[in-house]
Amino acid sequence: MKIAVFFPGYGSQYVGMCKDVYDENRIVQEYFEEASNCLNINFVKLCFASSETELASMANAYTSVFLTSSALYGLLKQEGITPSLVAGYNIGEYSSLLAANSITFPDGLYLLNKLANFYQELLATVDVRMIHVRNVDTHVLTTLCEHASRADDRAVIASYNSPREHMVSGSKVVIEYVQQRIIDIDGGATAADMPLEFGLHSPLMEPVARNLKIYLEKVDFKNVQIPWLSGIDGRIILHGEEIKQRVIQQIITPIHFQQVLQAEHDYDVLVAMGPGNQLTQLISAYYPEKKCVVINKAADIELLKNMIQTL
Length: 311
Description:
Elements: E1 3-7, H1 19-24, H2 26-39, H3 43-49, H4 52-56, H5 58-78, E2 85-88, H6 92-99, H7 105-123, E3 128-134, H8 138-148, E4 155-162, E5 165-171, H9 172-184, E6 190-194, H10 206-216, E7 228-229, E8 236-237, H11 240-252, E9 255-256, H12 257-262, E10 269-273, H13 278-286, E11 291-295, H14 298-310
Parallel strand pairs: 1-2, 1-10, 2-7, 4-9, 10-11
Antiparallel strand pairs: 3-5, 3-6, 4-5, 7-8
Helix pairs in contact: 2-5, 2-7, 5-6, 5-7, 7-10, 8-9, 10-11
């Protein structure tokens, strides 16, 4: 039985996430306590009793998604379920590295908090936008972005979700032009605005990567105990030093989630570990024939255990 576990990124957060497992499981409560102590934030209040707007802010969402995904994974481990492979989407890579035993829980919180701070500083100095593009082929979108870009104002694909679904980021004026051109395309093409918290995943993020690299040097990235898939090319990476370099690369280069999914073709069960269902939709669309489970509550873990026993 081969199980692959995916961890979600920004946008999966919602008020009340992980509440039922928190109420009933001491191990989950311990994760919340440790996170609150590490960052001096009341994560119980933030995750269960704040507003969607407050939770969605970059500094809050990055660490809260990491916390809840990690706590749910801790509950999964407690039930004796160990995956054969782990991967993360966007900031979900930090949760996947914790699952692979490459970084510690406090280090993940520390790095994501720094990442949010540096990214917010960058956004105060640039005029950028992001759009979520559907029903446009990769080569068509690539060509459109190249033709629209100029020396200092560019649009790039920030995430390759599927052959016809992408995120595009870049200078506001260029993104506006690309968005209008996409709307004019026949075939149901759409280009909806995306929150910048998702991450530009382009050379525009160089200052963020440069600042975070200083703090990455303070973190001991260990060789993984569970094979880890890199989000930038879908390759299995085992060694800590290479993982550290890829954490930086992921900030300034596109996410290639198609390649991550392609690497899962031999796995029996695909698990989306953490809040929300956006990641599950991507996985199920790519592998409609495979067993796909989302873990948001204790009952989901029981479902997974029964599935494993049946298979």
